[in-house]
Design goal:
The structure is a homotetramer. By secondary structure, chain A is mainly α. The first copy, chain A, is built from five helices and two strands. Chain A has a two-stranded antiparallel sheet. Chains in contact: A-B, C-D. Chain B binds a DNA duplex through α3.
Chain lengths: 129, 129, 129, 129
DNA sequence: GTGGTCTAGACCACC
DNA sequence: GTGGTCTAGACCACT
C-alpha cells in the first residue's frame, strides 16, 4: 500500500529497488531463501505478477537465483554482492549530492550534520551490517 | 499528479512542504500574490480544502498572509524568510546525513560525488524549476 | 441573518431588545422617525410580521408611538426614556455581575480592566449619548 | 442546539471557546478523557469535522492532547491549565469592562450589582457544572 | 470504535 | 472571483 503512482518509475522497478536495497543491507543474508512471491506480493500490496517481474529483474542482475520450484535464494557470489553494494552506494551518493546542491547545502554543512548525527547515534540500533 | 500516497505524511503536509520549499527557493518572490487556492488545488490534483489546509499551515508559519478576499501573498518579512530558509537547510542537511549514514556512505564519498557533480553541472540543465 | 435559533428567547423579543438598546443609546434621537417596518425587516433578515411584533412591544413600553400611516416615532417623553435607560442599565449590570461571578472575576479585577480600557479609549469615538 | 450563527466568529471557534471554558471550569478534570469527537459533534449539533477542528485548536493551545487512537485527554500540565485560566479571566474581564463602558455603567453600579447578587446567591444553585 | 485525513460540493462576505 | 467556513460522507491505521 503506497506503490500506486509514485509516478517516476514503474511499480515493478520501485519494488526491485526496494528489495535490492534490503538484500544489500543484509536483510536476507547470502544463501538465504526469500519468501514466496505471493507472500511478498501481498506484503507489498501489489499483484503477484508485478512482484514476479521485480524478482526476475533482480535475477537478471545476478543478485537472486531460482532453484526451480524450490524457491528463490540470495546469490552466494560475494564478489557480485560487493560490487552491487558499491554501485548502489555511489548512486545514492550522487543523488544525495544532487539534493544537497539543490538545497544550497555545502559539504561543510553536511559534515557538521553527519557529526552531530553520529553523536546522537552513540549506541543506537545498527540494523544493517 | 504524483501526490497520491507517499504514505509517510498527510497530503496537506506534503503540499505545505513543497510550497514552502518553492517559496524559499524564490519561486514566488516576496510580496508576490500566489495563485488562487482552487488553481493550486487543481494543479496539484487535490481537493481545494486540502490545499487550503496546506496554505493555512504556511500562514501559521508566517510565510504567507492573506489579504482577506484579495488573495494570498508571500510575506514581506525578509528576516522571517531568511530564518525559514536556514531552518529548512539544516533540516534537509540532517535528513541527507541520515540517509548517507543508513547507506554507509562516508563524508569522503559524498565530497567526491559533490565534486564530480559540480564538474557535470558546468553547463548542465537545471531541472528543478 | 443571525436571528434563527438563539434559542433562549423568541426572535421578536430579541429584535425588541436590540432596537430598544439602540433607541436608548440614541441611535434614533427622541422624536425621530423610524425606518419603515419592511425596511427594518429586510435589514434584520426576518419576516415583516416578526419585526412588526417587536415594534408593537416597544410601543407597549411607551418607547415608540405610531402616527397612524405617517410612520413610527421615538417617544418625546424624556422621563420615560430616562427611566427605561436606567432599567436597562441595571439589568445589564446584573447580567455582567453574574457573568463576572461565574468566571470568578473579582470587583478589583473588573476595576483594573475598566481602568486599562479607559486608558486605551482616550479620545476614541463615543457613539452613544 | 443553539449554535447556529451567533454570527460574530466561526462555529469551530465558538465551539473551541465553549469547550475551553468548560475545561478550565473543571468540567473535564485534568487527565480525564473527553467524549469521542463524534459524540461531542452530535451533542453540539455540528459536523464531526467542525468539532474536530475546534478540538485541534485546543490541542494547539496545549489544553488537550491526543493519545493517537486511544482518545483525547485534558492536559496534565497544571501550570498550563493555570495560565490558560488566568488568560481567560483577564479576557473575560476586558470584555465585561467594555460592555459596561458601552452601556454607561460605572464601577460603583457594578459593585452594587455584584453585592446584591452575592446576597441572592447565598443558597442559590450553581448552574455551571 | 477512535482520531485523522480527504473529497465533493455548498454557502457566505468582500470587492 | 477570492478566501473562509461548513457539511456529509468516506477511508485509513491503530488497538
Amino acid at each position: 500500500m503506497a506503490w500506486e503512482l509514485n509516478s517516476l518509475s514503474p511499480v515493478y522497478s520501485q519494488l526491485a529497488d526496494r528489495i535490492r536495497s534490503e538484500i544489500l543491507k543484509g536483510a536476507y543474508p547470502s544463501g538465504e531463501q526469500l519468501p514466496a512471491v505471493r507472500i511478498l506480493a501481498v506484503e507489498a500490496g501489489v499483484n503477484p505478477n508485478t512482484m514476479q517481474r521485480a524478482l526476475t529483474q533482480l535475477e537478471g542482475e545476478g543478485l537472486l537465483f531460482s532453484k526451480g520450484t524450490a524457491g528463490r535464494y540470495v546469490t552466494e557470489d560475494g564478489e557480485r554482492l560487493k560490487t552491487a553494494r558499491e554501485r548502489m552506494k555511489t548512486a545514492t551518493a550522487r543523488r544525495l549530492a544532487k539534493e544537497a546542491a539543490d538545497a544550497g547545502i555545502t559539504l561543510q554543512e553536511l559534515a557538521q550534520a553527519m557529526e552531530s548525527l553520529a553523536g546522537t547515534e552513540k549506541q543506537g540500533g545498527n540494523e544493517h551490517e
